[in-house]
């Protein structure tokens, strides 16, 4: 009579970490290259080691970089840091998954000659926002602004629109200089009172002037 035996599994990374003895590793320095399938390969001396980027190495390694690696097992090599790279190679800081930069008790500043921001959805939330620029251009298909109070102060305002719709409960406008409206057809309509007042009031109709009312008073 024979007894069936259950095959044993290879110890997992977690079980090896929680074991009695510490894991050992060795450091090596090499040049990053790519394998036949595009996988990262580190050439160190006469060895070519397949390696993976460690989570703490935020600078994305590029081919030709001198990297520092930690070798835990013959088939487990981690790229820990980029030591040197060729001139002209872009520096890309990346990590898989989500990324959050937090400075709860301090300030976060970005200083660069040019900053580009690209995202499908961008959200900014702050109690106070101040933007100071010499020249600003906003280009978009739709722009919506919702605020309790809106104030614009400037020396020149120029707008070009195909159609403008405006609604307000009260509309007050003051102009120190000339206020001129040029249009093909102008209508002014008031439900209760329409008042035109000026030191000199001129009404000029090239072909016809017509006044109609239940009572008309002049003088």
How would you describe this structure to a colleague?
The protein is mostly beta strands. It is 2% helix and 17% strand. The protein is built from one helix and six strands, in the order αββββββ. The protein has one helix at 13-17, and strands spanning 26-34, 40-44, 47-50, 52-53, 66-73, 76-84. Strands 3-2-1-5-6-4 form a six-stranded mixed beta sheet, with no helix packed on it. A hairpin with a 2-residue loop joins strand 2 and strand 3. It is rod-shaped.
Relevant terms:
6 strands, disordered N terminus, 219 residues, 6-stranded mixed sheet, OB fold (Dihydrolipoamide Acetyltransferase, E2P), mainly beta
Instruction: Count the E strands.
Output: 6
Helix content: under 10%
| Regions with little confidence, pLDDT below 50 for 5+ residues | 1-10
**CATH superfamily name of the domain at 23-84?**
Nucleic acid-binding proteins
Mean pLDDT: 87
Examine the coordinates and then state which fold CATH places here, giving the name of the CATH topology of the domain at 23-84.
OB fold (Dihydrolipoamide Acetyltransferase, E2P)
Q: What is the H/E string?
A: HEEEEEE
Anisotropy-based shape: rod-shaped
For the biggest sheet, the summary is: 6 strands, mixed
Our measurement of the CA-to-CA distance between the termini, rounded to an integer number of angstroms, reads 130 Å
Strand content: 15-25%
- Indicate the radius of gyration in whole angstroms: 37 Å
CATH class of the domain at 23-84 reads: Mainly Beta
Instruction: Report the total helices.
Output: 1
Q: State the strand order across the main sheet.
A: 3-2-1-5-6-4
């Amino acid at each position: 009579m024979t007894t069936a035996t259950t095959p044993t599994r290879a110890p997992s990374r977690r079980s090896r970490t929680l074991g009695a003895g510490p894991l050992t590793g060795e450091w090596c320095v090499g040049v990053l290259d790519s394998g036949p399938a595009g996988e990262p390969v580190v050439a160190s001396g006469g060895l070519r080691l397949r390696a993976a980027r460690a989570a703490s190495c935020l600078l994305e390694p590029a081919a030709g970089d001198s990297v520092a690696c930690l070798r835990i097992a013959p088939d487990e090599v981690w790229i820990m840091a980029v030591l040197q790279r060729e001139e002209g190679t872009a520096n890309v800081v990346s990590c898989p998954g989500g990324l959050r930069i937090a400075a709860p008790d301090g300030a976060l500043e970005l200083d660069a000659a040019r900053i580009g921001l690209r995202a499908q959805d961008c959200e900014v939330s702050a109690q106070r926002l101040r933007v100071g620029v010499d020249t600003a251009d906003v280009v978009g298909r739709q722009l919506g602004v919702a605020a309790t109070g809106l104030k614009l102060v400037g020396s020149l305002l120029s707008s070009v629109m195909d159609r403008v719709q405006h609604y307000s409960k009260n509309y007050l406008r003051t102009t120190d200089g000339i206020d001129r409206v040029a249009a093909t057809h102008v209508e002014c309509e008031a439900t209760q009172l329409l008042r035109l007042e000026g030191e000199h009031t001129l009404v000029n109709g090239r072909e016809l002037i017509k006044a109609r009312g239940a009572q008309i008073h002049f003088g």
